[in-house]
Design a protein that fits this description.
By secondary structure, the chain is of the alpha/beta class. It has twelve helices and eleven strands.
Length: about 400
């Protein structure tokens, strides 16, 4: 069972908005946007009732650090729905706490819906609650929305682990071209896609694919925030290489309108912006496939230093044919095959993403140092599984 942050009732130090509007005939009390803006200090949070209307707070949810949802009864499923909506539709990435009537065997579903912690009802023995959590592992129960019970998923994971071991043993010394060819034509024919940013160095892998299977699907994420040079480079490279199945993937317009209507979410919550414009669209696009190919390399950043050639992440195999390639290797390939560089590379952009979050790379820096400059953020999220959010 995932670890929860369990609290007694209620933690007074956890700041929630207290000056809420009075209840109305149509709904519970909610903090007004005006008052919320006026009191936006560090740690500010919001307390929601099970039947809360989130629409009045649509523009503010992503700026909050914490939200609590009250459970009036353990039989009331509305808080679970609110949590899912906050995570998926509004892009809330902060601490999400359940308050009130919670019972131990709901813990797994709390995690799956995005809760990070909960406070048990007043007078409840926390130690007894924690012991009970360990007695309800939900191993056999088939939860709503899941492909199977945890036991069934364990069997699938064992099978995937065996396949991964087999693939790694078979291709541990394979050259990049040979690994890509094997993945596309032999191991996952018709069930694999190459995901490309059409950024710096992207031409190498795309050129290889054009020699192997020009009809293979290439997924390109157009976030709506890309450089015009990237879009023109995509068009030119697609035509030059004769790629016949380049698919442009875009964010859901309704989700963008609801969660980033003014287009500046990147400046307030970069993680939420990446989830909205990259992670969610790519997850939908990859749904039909069992495997995908990336252009990541170990030299790009410290986080990618140990990147394997083949992975199994989030239920899908990932091939990284260029993992061991250096910048010199890539330059030599581009020169040998007379492939055009991304037009921004000559201006110091060595890793190219969205316009507001991409900067030039300084001499001596990692190739990805210009991404999310002056921030702890180093990845957009598409190369990390989206685990259920659990407090440590």
């Amino acid at each position: 069972m995932p670890a929860f942050d369990v609290h007694g009732a209620p933690a007074a130090a956890w700041p929630l908005v207290a000056d809420a509007d009075p209840p109305t005939a149509t709904g519970p009390a909610l903090a007004s946007p005006a008052r919320l803006c006026a009191r936006r200090e560090p740690g500010l949070g919001l307390l929601l009732e099970p039947d809360a209307d989130l629409a009045p707070l649509a523009g503010l949810i992503s700026t909050l650090e914490r939200i609590a949802i009250r459970f009036a009864s353990f039989k009331d499923g509305r808080p679970f729905s609110l949590a899912r909506i906050l995570r998926s539709r509004f892009g809330f990435a902060g601490d999400l706490r359940a308050l009130g009537a919670i019972i131990p065997d709901q813990a797994g579903f709390l995690v799956r819906c995005g809760f990070t912690s909960f406070e048990v009802a007043e007078g409840f023995d926390i130690a007894a609650f924690q012991r009970a959590l360990r007695r309800f592992p939900l191993v056999y129960q088939r939860p709503w929305g899941a492909a199977g019970s945890i036991m069934e998923r364990r069997h699938a994971a064992v099978s995937a682990a065996a396949r991964l071991h087999e693939l790694r043993a078979r291709y541990s010394t394979a050259a990049a071209f040979d690994l890509l060819a094997a993945a596309v034509t032999r191991e996952f024919p018709g069930r694999i896609a190459l995901v490309s940013s059409f950024g710096a160095e992207s031409a190498v892998l795309l050129h290889m694919l054009s020699r192997i299977a020009p009809d293979a699907p290439v997924l390109f994420l157009d976030t709506g925030k890309l450089f015009g040079e990237t879009l023109r480079y995509r068009n030119a490279l697609t035509a030059l290489l004769g790629l016949r199945n380049v698919q442009t993937i875009t964010p859901d317009p309704a989700a963008v309108a609801a969660r980033d209507g003014n287009g500046v979410l990147w400046s307030k919550a970069a993680e939420a912006c990446c989830v909205l414009r990259k992670v969610e669209p790519l997850a939908r696009a990859l749904a039909p496939y069992d495997a995908w190919v990336t252009g990541r390399k170990r030299h790009q950043s410290a986080e990618r230093h140990d990147l394997p050639l083949i992975e199994h992440v989030d239920g899908r195999f990932k091939f990284n044919p260029l993992a061991a390639w250096t910048r010199a290797d890539l330059a030599a390939y581009l020169d040998t095959h007379r492939l055009p560089r991304h037009p921004l590379e000559a201006d110091g952009y060595l890793s190219i993403g969205c316009t507001p979050c991409t900067d030039r790379v300084r001499p001596g820096e990692d190739a990805r140092a210009g991404r999310w400059r002056d921030s702890a953020k180093t990845e957009c999220g598409i190369h990390h599984p989206a685990p259920l959010r659990v407090a440590s």
